[in-house]
TrEMBL record:
Keywords: DNA recombination, DNA-binding. It comes from the Bacteria. The keyword Lipoprotein does not apply. Residues 179-384 form the Tyr recombinase domain. Coiled coil: none annotated. This is Site-specific integrase. One of its GO terms (biological process) is DNA recombination. The keyword Calcium does not apply. It holds the Pfam family Phage_integrase.
Length: 397
């Protein structure tokens, strides 16, 4: 029966030899990173000293055997980050927007805490404490994003044989705080419409009034359930107002990345969320106004754009909406509130499946968990059914 092979970076039994000069030599066979067994020795005046000296030599060689190439067990965490980012660029699977987000999270949330550690020094306990600290001092979202980039980077280190295992795998489960989606009531929607339509249009306001695009963007968000970036990416050719009801093809989003101009991406947040939606009359009217405003432009022209003809950034619209609403005393409303409102209205009328389809989700689970406001009301039919339990009158026999 064949003897099992010694794993890479490990050594066999240490034996000792006496030399003519009275010194002791400690000898062991070590399996190097090329798979070959080699004799390694160390000499000292005593057996214990020779053994300790040999073990030190073997430990150094073992660390080298774990990692090869650009990363080793002695590489710093900062070196791992640079190799990981370069690998992301080489792989080219994730979008440039996600790549930018990953780098920001790594450099701002993780690197300050770990940059000076060697990979061999990083433990499960260390990563567990880092993630828990981020959750306590920043937010659940920050902790979750840090855990994601840490797992990806350490996964690369394992593939490079610079680490034996991924420490993120064994940290405590990150539990999300209980939260509840909140939809806008019709009274709140009307108050938002009124606040935006009157913003900077009072008689005493200096300067030109707004061009109406913010109001139209709101109507399209309410009529399509689209994300703000998806609405800003709608082109003339994506709209069909010659049919009843009018339709809009949601097939892009606006991207603003560091170092590049704001531009339209040719698919929404996910490629699978491309969809054609029929819109209600109020949204169709807003789209017609924008089609008139772009009547001289080609079919690929965006419906919503700045005075310079460039795409709006999503932050620009969020800022303008927040300013307009704050002026009317309305706080805490973001563009995503309109998306949750649409999901909730559709759920109440026809169930979560239709809401998920409208929002471009592949499953209603996400829609229910994050977008639909829970309905506390039980079906009133229960009252009629339970009438059978009513107390009987004496004359009923």
């Amino acid at each position: 029966m064949a003897r099992p092979r010694t794993p890479l970076g490990t050594f066999g039994q240490i034996r000792f030899e006496s030399k003519e000069n009275g010194q002791i030599r400690a000898v062991a066979r070590f399996r190097d990173n090329d798979g070959r067994l080699r004799k390694v020795s160390a000499t000292a005046d005593t057996q214990k000293a020779a053994e300790n000296k040999l073990k030190t030599i073997l430990a150094v060689r073992a660390e080298a055997a774990i990692g090869q190439g650009e990363l080793t067990a002695d590489s710093s965490f900062r070196q791992l980050v640079e190799v990981w980012l370069a690998d992301l660029d080489l792989d080219g699977v994730i979008s440039s927007r996600t790549r930018t987000l990953y780098e920001w999270n790594m450099r701002n949330l993780v690197l300050p805490a770990l940059e000076n550690y060697a990979l061999r020094e990083i433990s499960v306990r260390m990563i567990d404490q880092l993630v828990k600290t981020l959750k306590a001092t920043k937010s659940y979202s920050s902790a979750k994003q840090a855990r994601t980039v840490l797992s990806l980077a350490f996964g690369l280190a394992v593939r490079y044989d610079a680490m034996r295992s991924n420490p993120v795998r064994d940290i405590a489960r990150l539990r999300k705080p209980a939260s509840q989606a909140m939809a806008l009531r019709i009274e709140q929607v009307e108050a938002i419409r009124s606040a935006v339509s009157s913003w900077r249009r009072d008689p005493g306001h200096s300067g030109p009034p707004p061009d109406g695009q913010l109001e139209q963007i709101i109507e399209v968000m309410l009529g399509t359930s689209a994300r703000i970036g998806e609405v800003l990416a709608i082109r003339k050719c994506d709209v069909n107002v010659t049919v009843t009801p009018a339709t809009v093809r949601i097939c892009g989003t606006i991207i603003s990345e560091k170092g590049t101009p704001t531009h339209r991406q040719d698919h929404p947040k996910t490629a699978k969320s491309t969809r054609v939606v029929a819109v209600p009359g109020f949204a169709a009217e807003a789209l017609r106004v924008r089609l008139v405003a772009t009547s001289g432009a080609d079919a690929e022209h965006l419906l919503f754009f700045t005075r310079n003809g460039t795409p709006f950034t999503t932050n620009n619209v969020r800022r303008r909406l927040g300013t307009a609403l704050s002026a009317a005393g309305i706080e805490g409303v973001t563009p995503h509130a309109f998306r949750r409102t649409v999901a909730t209205v559709l759920d109440r009328a026809s169930g979560p499946e239709l809401a998920a389809e409208m929002l471009g989700h592949t499953s209603s689970k996400i829609t229910l968990q994050h977008y639909i406001e829970p309905d506390e009301a039980v079906n009133p039919v229960t009252a009629d059914i339970l009438e059978s339990l009513a107390p009987r009158r004496k004359d009923d026999g």
